[in-house]
Amino acid sequence: MTQVAVATNPTHYGNPSTGCESDEVDVRVSGLSGDFCSPKCNSSGVCPKDMPKGDAAVPECALRTTTGDKYCGLVCRSDSDCGTGSCQTSLGVGLCTYAAADAAHPLQLLPAEAAQIIV
């Protein structure tokens, strides 16, 4: 039997279609199109700083689940901040996302409170 290794992104916040890192989940934010790989925020609300090449967005603890778990995202102002992704905006806050794969079943997240996502 031959095993084929599935490549994963070399950084956080990558395109889920190429695989998320072991500490990330594929997420989709309510109200935005597309999805992305997202790590949980640490206990201090800090997010990993490694990003895909070409991204100029800012990693922030900007998302939460309905149960209160907090996740990181790349906060952007325009598509040029997102490398190969796109900047999707809701309620004045942008997040870098990638076109969603048809078979994907990402974790659904909500934007965190406005005080946590100020750019």
Q: How many strand units?
A: 7
- Overall, the morphology is globular
What's the helix count?
0
Strand content: 25-35%
Polypeptide structure, described:
By secondary structure, the protein is mainly β. The chain has one domain (16-113). Helices cover 0% and strands 33% of the residues. It is built from no helices and 7 strands. It has strands at 24-29, 36-39, 58-64, 70-76, 86-90, 93-97, 107-111. A 7-stranded mixed sheet has the order 2-1-7-3-4-6-5, with no helix packed on it. The chain is globular and about 30 Å long. The chain starts with 23 loop residues before the first strand and ends in an 8-residue tail after the last strand. Residues 1-5 and 114-119 have low confidence and may be disordered.
